[in-house]
Amino acid sequence: MWHLLEPLHAVLYYAPEAFEEAAALGYGTEERWPSYFAWRAAPLGPVGAGPVASAFYSFSPAMVERYMAAAWEVAAPGDVVEARLRAMDRFYRRLLGEQADELEQAARLARRAAEAAVPAGRPLAAANAALEWPKAPHLVLWQAATVLREHRGDGHVAALLTAGLDPVEALVSFAAVGAASTRTFASRGWSEDDWAAARERLAARGLVTLDGTATEAGRALRAEVERRTDELAAAPWAALGDQETARLSELLGGVWVAVLGAGLLPRENTLGVGKG
After folding, report:
1. Per the CB 3.0–4.6 Å rule, which of 11, 15, 67, 107 could disulfide with 37?
2. 100 vs 219: CA distance, rounded Å
3. How far is Cα 249 from Cα 240, in angstroms, rounded to an integer?
4. Residues 206, 217: Cα–Cα separation, whole Å
5. Structure pTM?
6. 37 near 67, Cβ under 8 Å?
7. At 208, is the secondary structure helix, strand, or coil?
8. Is 70 helix (H, G, I), strand (E, B) or coil?
């Protein structure tokens, strides 16, 4: 379900309509990070770089500070939340045309799953779950996908903490199992020295070799992180039930294909989408 829903949410960070809405608010659009941090952090309210770095986890605090320092001086969080819905409304109506209004059943099922996601201990899920639900089915579906992906992401952070992987170690260990190239993970803002030091710490634990390749123990630890992440993300789907979860999966297929077919999402990414 994560593989089906994640692209539906993530186009927010790449769609031309989102960059247009960000520019109208006053954010820079030469790169995606000014709008990325604003879009994703806005439901938390006018928080600073510290809480955002904590919740996002894998980004260098220096990078978060660079983009969050004046984020709420450009636009208030509430205005950003409204603008991201406008962006997704415009994008999905362009992508799907009249089919955007034919997603009532998918939206209803996804919302039920999202509302079953217990927000305790999950700041990004809680912040998005507290937002008012939009009316249009395609926006209900997008918001449900957002709540569910942040619920899963918050649980993933808990799994990383339990595994004893700090933010940069989480990336180094993920790159070590071939989730994506080191170049792709460099987008998170860590310096070469930060990366090398994390690799040395992991090597001392027997999790990677000196060249950064995962050992058997390192692969086992990452597999346990993913298993625990899945376990922590399971409650909404257990609440929805096998039959209706399967039905939602069927209903999402066409939207998923359309979103991927738009060509906006990068083939290689730090989430490991598409990797075994």
Report:
1. 67
2. 41
3. 12
4. 7
5. 0.95
6. yes
7. strand
8. coil
